[in-house]
Request: fold
Amino acid sequence: MAKGRSRRANGGGAARMRAPPSDSDRIIDAALACIARQGWRRLSLADIAAEAGLPVLRVYRLFSSKTAILRGFFRPPRSTANPTNARATGFSIC
Reply:
C-alpha cells in the first residue's frame, strides 16, 4: 500500500461516517435542551450559543431572535426539502 494512503480510500462500506450536523441544526438542538432546562422566558441566544458550542454572532447570523429559532423547530429536515424526495414521500413544500 502506498505511503499515507488509507485502506478504505473508496468509502469502506460499513465504516462510512455521517456528515456532521449543520450549525443551524446544532442551534435548534441546543435551544431544545436549554428550553427543557430553564424554560422559554429565561432563554437567551447567548445560552443557546454556549450550549451549541458556537459564537453568539454565528447564532445571530442564522437566527435573528428567539422567535426565529422557534420557527426553526418546525422547518422540514434537509433530507425532505428537495423536490425529488418530497414527491416520493408525499410531502409538499409550499
Q: What stands out?
A: Residues 23-38 form the longest helix (16 residues).
